[in-house]
C-alpha cells in the first residue's frame, strides 16, 4: 500500500503580527500573501468564516489569487452560529453554501472544518445535532473537531466511519478533561491533525485568542506528534496537518520543522 501524502497549512493567514515575521517587513502593494504561503504550504484554513459568513466577492477573490496554484486548497471553518450557538437557519445555510460555491467550482475547497467548543460534551442530544448538521452539509468533506474528552470513544469513531466523517486529531494542553492527541482515521481517504499549542497558563484564561495560541513547540514535542501522525501514514491517502498556534508566526515555524521531521 502506498503511503499517504502529507499536506501542511496554517490556520489563517491575515495576522498583523505576521508582518515582518512570516511576511517581509517591506513589500509591494501587490504582495500576494496566499502566493507567498503556497511556496511552503499546501492549504490554508479560513478563520474569518467562523465569525461571519464571507461574501461571494471575497471567496471569489481567494480563487483569483490562487489561480496559478491549482493544487492549493482551502479548509473553511464553519460559521459559529452552527457550532457554538447551535442556531441553524435556512437563510444562513443558504448564504454559507453560496459563499463556498466559487471555491467548490474551482476545485479549491478541501472541505469544511467543524470546530465545537470545550463545553460541547458528548450526550445523545449533542450527537444528534452533529449528525443533523452533517446531513445539512453532506455534499462537502466534513472534518469535525471536539475539544472535550467525552467524545474520545470507539463507538463514536464507528459512527463517523459509517457516515464518512473526518475525525480531527488535535494537540492541545493536557489539563482538565481536554481531549488528548489521538491517532484516529474515520474517513476512507482523509485524516486531519490540528496543532493548537500547549499553553496551559492561558488556555482557559480570559486573555484573548493570541495569548491562548502563543506557543512554540520544541523538538521533543514535534517528534512525539510526528510519531502519532506516522501511525496513519499507511492507512490514509491524505493527511492534513494544520498549525493554529499562530501568534507571531509560530505555526509557520513549527509546521516547517514538523515537515522536515516527517519527510526525513
Description:
This protein has one domain: Alpha-Beta Barrel (TIM Barrel), CATH 3.20.20.410. An eight-stranded parallel beta sheet has the order 1-8-7-6-5-4-3-2. 36% of the residues lie in helices and 17% in strands. By secondary structure, it is an alpha/beta fold. The chain starts with a strand and ends with a helix.
Kindly state the percentage of residues in helix: 25-40%
The low-confidence runs, each spanning 5 or more residues with pLDDT under 50, are none
Q: Spell out the helices and strands N to C.
A: EHEHHEHHEHEHEEHHHEH
Q: Whole-Å distance between the termini? A: 20 Å
Domain count: the total is 1
Mean pLDDT: 96
Q: What's the level 1 CATH class?
A: Alpha Beta
| Sheet/helix structural class | alpha/beta
Label the CATH architecture.
Alpha-Beta Barrel
Q: Tell how many strands the DSSP assignment holds.
A: 8
Q: What's the overall geometry? A: globular
Oligomer: single chain
Main sheet summary: 8 strands, parallel
What's the helix count? 11
Query: What does the radius of gyration come to?
Result: 18 Å
Features:
TIM Barrel; 264 residues; 8-stranded parallel sheet
Q: Topology, please?
A:
Layout (H helix, E strand, L loop, with lengths): L4 E6 L22 H6 L4 E4 L1 H4 L4 H10 L7 E5 L2 H4 L6 H16 L3 E7 L8 H13 L5 E4 L8 H10 L2 E6 L18 E6 L4 H4 L5 H4 L6 H12 L7 E6 L6 H13 L2
At a glance:
This protein is of the alpha/beta class.
